[in-house]
Design a protein that fits this description.
Elements lengths: L7 E7 L6 H12 L5 E8 L5 H9 L5 E6 L5 H11 L4 E4 L11 H10 L4 E9 L5 H18 L11 E4 H5 L11 H7 L3 E8 L12 H5 L3 H12 L13
Parallel strand pairs: 1-2, 1-4, 2-3, 5-7
Antiparallel strand pairs: 4-6, 5-6
InterPro entries: Glyco_trans_2-like, Glycosyltransferase_2, Nucleotide-diphossugar_trans
GO molecular function: undecaprenyl-phosphate 4-deoxy-4-formamido-L-arabinose transferase activity
Keywords: Cell membrane, Glycosyltransferase, Lipopolysaccharide biosynthesis, Membrane, Transferase, Transmembrane, Transmembrane helix
Length: 245
């Protein structure tokens, strides 16, 4: 694997996903090898299992794999942010580390951002055929319905981890816990378009969910109110030109 400057960075937030590390990295490679110069950044969010050791072993075989470690778990949004800040690619794509997000859809998301030629600020995966339990799907429908009714972001599924965006666009977003669930509304606020890509959900490889059980049903009243306020307070972006002498 080449360690040359990547054009794409794949960010994967994980906590206690040791058994899912190797299969998912192999699938990312199968999806992207020969298509882009890319790096894979795993953000180890305070794992207490063998996640770090599994990553270290694969890093000896892949010089495009990087591991960032949080000393203690600070949540999925913080892990994604750490990965994006460390990314060297101009386009960043994210996916969950449990194997439910199929890396085969990464090329479609990345291509949607590239083809957007600066207009598309986010390519968002929209899950079809979800493999979650009925209760989890109910939670997501309620959460997405409330969010969409208030923010009117036009997105049916903000909980899908498969996303791609220009790195610089993400870094302009105000940071708060749960940011990844409000990206469509915030990206629209900045005047960018959103591309939607249907993705097929699948069961996780192994283990149990480590993120987001409570958020699926109650997305955070304070965060929702805060994002609504930000959208309401948005002023037109000035049309700036430099005056030459």
């Amino acid at each position: 694997m080449s360690s040359s400057q990547p054009s794409v960075s794949i960010v994967v937030p994980v906590r206690n996903e040791a058994d899912n590390i190797a299969p998912l990295i192999a699938e990312i490679g199968a999806a992207l090898d020969g298509r882009w110069a890319y790096e894979i950044i795993y953000v180890n969010d305070g794992s207490t299992d063998a996640t770090g050791e599994r990553l270290a072993g694969i890093m000896r075989q892949r010089d495009n794999l990087r591991q960032l470690r949080h000393a203690r778990s600070t949540g999925q949004s913080a892990a994604v942010r750490s990965g994006v800040r460390a990314a060297r690619g101009t386009i960043v794509a994210t996916l969950d580390g449990d194997g439910q997000n199929n890396p085969a859809f990464l090329p479609d998301l990345i291509a949607a951002v590239e083809q957007g030629a600066g207009r598309v600020g986010l390519a968002a995966g929209q899950r079809v055929g979800r493999k979650d339990t009925g209760f989890k799907k109910f939670q997501s429908r309620v959460a997405n319905g409330i969010r969409n009714a208030i923010l009117k972001d036009g997105t049916r599924d903000t909980g899908c981890g498969l996303k791609a965006f220009p790195r610089e666009v993400f870094l302009t977003m105000p940071y708060f816990d749960g940011l990844h669930r409000f990206l469509p509304a915030l990206v629209r606020r900045e005047g960018y378009e959103i591309a939607y890509v249907d993705v097929i959900d699948r069961p996780r490889h192994s283990g149990v969910s480590n993120y987001g059980f409570f958020d699926r049903l109650w997305i955070g009243i304070m965060d929702l109110a805060g994002v609504w306020w930000l959208i309401r307070r948005k002023k037109p972006t000035p049309d700036v030109t430099e005056v030459k002498a």
